C-alpha cells in the first residue's frame, strides 16, 4: 500500500504540456541549421526537455528502474558504439550525439510524464487531435497533388522535399507534413486502437467507429501498404479480443496458433515467410520484388558484419539494383547498421514490454487502455518489417515504447480513477473508489496520497 501511494504521489501533473508539444512537433516539416546541427521542431523539444526528463527518471518520478529501461539504454549505447567502430568518433560525434538524443529522450519523456491513466489519455487526445487537423490536408493532397502545408512552412524555413509518385487506387499519396507519405501513414496508424479503447471508453459503438474513422481516413490517404498492414493487424486483434472475450487465455491461444501456422508455412512452402509476407502485403508486385532482393543482399552484409554492422556505409548489391538504395525494413536496417546485438536489445525491450504488461492484473479503463496500447505497439512493430522508420517516426516509436511502462505501476485504483474521470467528462458525476468517504474532520487515504 505504501509503495502504491508513494508512486501516485510522485507522479507529475496529469496533463504535462511537454506531451502536447512533442506530439505536435513530430508533424512540424521545417528544419534549420545551428552551429553545424540540423534542428527540426521535434529536435528542439527534445533538447529543451532532455535534462528534466532524464533527471525525473533518475530521481524516481517515473517509478523504479525497469528492465525495459536497461534494454533501451543498452540499445542506444551499442548503436553509438557501432557508429564509432565503423566511422570513428571524431568525425561522427555530432551525429552520434543526436542519434542518442532521438533514441533516449522521447522514451524518457514518456516514462517521466506519463504516469497515470489521465496523462496517458491526454497523450492519446493530442495524437488524435493532430491527425484530425491533418486529415483535410491529406484529403486535399490525394485529389490535387498539392502540398499546402509544405508550401506554407516553406515560405519561412527549409522543409522536407515533396515526393511525387504514380497514383494508387486512383489517388495520389498524401504526405502532409511528414518526410514521406509512408511515414505519414505509419505515424497515424498506431492511433487506431488507442482511439478505440482509450478515447472510445464507455462510448457507443457508432461513436467509436466515428472516432477511429478519422484515423483510418488519414492512413488511407497515405496509400502505404505498411500503414494499411498496421491497421489490418490492429483490426484483426481487436476482432479476436471481441469474439473470444469469454476465453480467459485467448492471447496465449492466438500466439500458439500463430507459431503452429508459421512452422507449417516454413516447412510446407518453397518460399520463406518473409517472401510470403512481402508478396501478399504490398500494393504493387514491383515493390515486393524489390523488398525480397533487398532483404537477401542486405542479409549477406549482416552475416559478414554480425557484431557492429556496417554503419552508414552503403550495402552491397548487384549493379542492376544500384538505384534501389533504400532498405524498407526497419528491423533489417537496425541489424545492418549496428549488428545483431542492437536488434536483440531493441526487440528484447519490445518483448519484455508485452510480457510484463500482459501479466499485470488490471481492470476497467486501465485494462482497456493497456489493450489498446499493446495492440497499437504490435501493429507498429510488425508493419516496420515493410517500412523504415526515421526522423520523427523513429522518435515516435521510442516515445510509444516508453508510454506504456506506467501500466506496471498501475493498480485497480488507477482504473477506477479513469472511470470516474471519463464519467465526469460525460456529465455524470459517479464515484468509483475502494476507500470510504472521509468522515467530517478526517482525511481519506486517497486524499493523503494526493497531498503528499
Automatic annotation (TrEMBL):
Name assigned to this protein: Lipid A core-O-antigen ligase
Keywords annotated in UniProt: Membrane, Transmembrane, Transmembrane helix
UniProt cross-references to InterPro entries, sorted A to Z: WaaL-like
Organism of derivation: Ruegeria atlantica
Keyword check for NADP: no
Top-level division of the source organism's lineage: Bacteria
Transmembrane helix recorded as keyword: yes
Residue spans crossing the bilayer: 16-34, 40-58, 92-110, 122-140, 182-199, 211-233, 253-269, 340-359, 371-390
Amino acid at each position: 500500500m505504501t509503495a502504491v501511494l508513494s508512486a501516485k504521489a510522485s507522479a507529475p501533473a496529469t496533463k504535462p504540456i511537454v506531451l502536447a508539444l512533442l506530439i505536435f512537433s513530430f508533424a512540424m516539416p521545417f528544419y534549420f541549421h545551428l552551429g553545424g546541427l540540423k534542428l527540426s521542431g521535434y529536435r528542439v523539444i527534445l533538447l529543451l526537455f532532455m535534462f528534466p526528463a532524464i533527471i525525473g527518471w533518475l530521481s524516481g518520478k517515473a517509478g523504479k528502474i525497469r528492465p525495459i529501461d536497461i534494454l533501451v539504454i543498452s540499445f542506444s549505447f551499442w548503436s553509438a558504439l557501432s557508429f564509432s567502430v565503423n566511422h570513428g568518433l571524431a568525425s561522427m560525434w555530432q551525429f552520434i550525439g543526436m542519434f542518442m538524443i532521438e533514441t533516449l529522450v522521447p522514451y524518457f519523456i514518456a516514462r517521466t510524464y506519463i504516469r497515470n491513466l489521465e496523462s496517458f489519455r491526454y497523450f492519446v487526445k493530442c495524437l488524435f487531435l493532430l491527425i484530425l487537423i491533418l486529415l483535410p490536408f491529406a484529403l486535399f493532397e490525394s485529389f490535387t497533388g498539392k502540398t499546402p502545408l509544405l508550401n506554407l512552412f516553406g515560405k519561412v524555413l527549409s522543409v522536407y522535399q515533396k515526393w511525387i509518385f504514380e497514383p494508387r487506387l486512383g489517388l495520389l499519396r498524401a504526405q502532409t507534413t511528414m518526410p514521406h507519405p509512408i511515414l505519414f501513414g505509419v505515424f497515424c496508424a498506431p492511433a487506431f486502437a488507442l482511439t478505440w479503447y482509450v478515447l472510445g471508453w464507455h462510448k457507443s459503438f457508432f461513436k467509436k467507429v466515428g472516432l477511429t474513422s478519422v484515423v483510418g481516413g488519414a492512413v488511407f490517404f497515405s496509400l502505404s501498404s505498411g500503414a494499411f498492414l498496421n491497421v489490418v493487424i490492429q483490426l484483426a486483434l481487436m476482432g479476436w479480443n471481441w469474439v473470444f472475450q469469454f476465453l480467459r487465455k485467448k492471447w496465449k491461444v492466438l500466439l500458439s496458433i500463430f507459431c503452429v501456422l508459421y512452422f507449417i508455412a516454413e516447412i510446407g512452402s518453397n518460399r520463406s515467410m518473409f517472401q510470403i509476407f512481402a508478396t501478399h502485403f504490398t500494393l504493387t508486385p514491383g515493390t515486393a520484388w524489390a523488398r525480397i532482393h533487398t532483404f537477401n543482399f542486405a542479409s549477406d552484409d549482416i552475416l559478414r558484419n554480425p557484431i557492429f554492422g556496417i554503419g552508414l556505409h552503403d550495402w552491397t548489391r548487384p549493379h542492376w539494383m544500384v538505384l534501389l538504395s533504400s532498405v524498407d525494413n526497419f528491423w533489417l536496417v537496425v541489424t545492418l547498421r549496428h549488428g545483431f546485438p542492437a536488434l536483440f536489445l531493441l526487440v528484447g525491450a519490445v518483448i519484455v514490454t508485452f510480457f510484463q504488461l500482459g501479466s499485470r492484473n488490471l481492470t476497467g479503463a486501465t485494462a482497456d487502455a493497456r489493450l489498446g496500447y499493446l495492440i497499437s505497439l504490435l501493429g507498429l512493430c510488425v508493419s516496420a518489417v515493410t517500412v523504415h522508420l526515421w526522423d520523427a517516426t523513429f522518435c515516435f516509436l521510442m516515445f510509444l515504447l516508453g508510454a506504456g511502462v506506467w501500466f506496471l505501476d498501475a493498480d485497480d485504483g488507477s482504473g477506477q480513477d479513469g472511470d470516474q474521470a471519463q464519467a465526469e467528462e460525460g456529465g455524470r458525476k459517479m464515484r468509483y473508489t475502494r476507500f470510504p468517504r472521509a468522515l467530517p474532520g478526517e482525511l481519506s487515504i486517497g486524499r493523503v496520497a494526493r497531498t503528499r
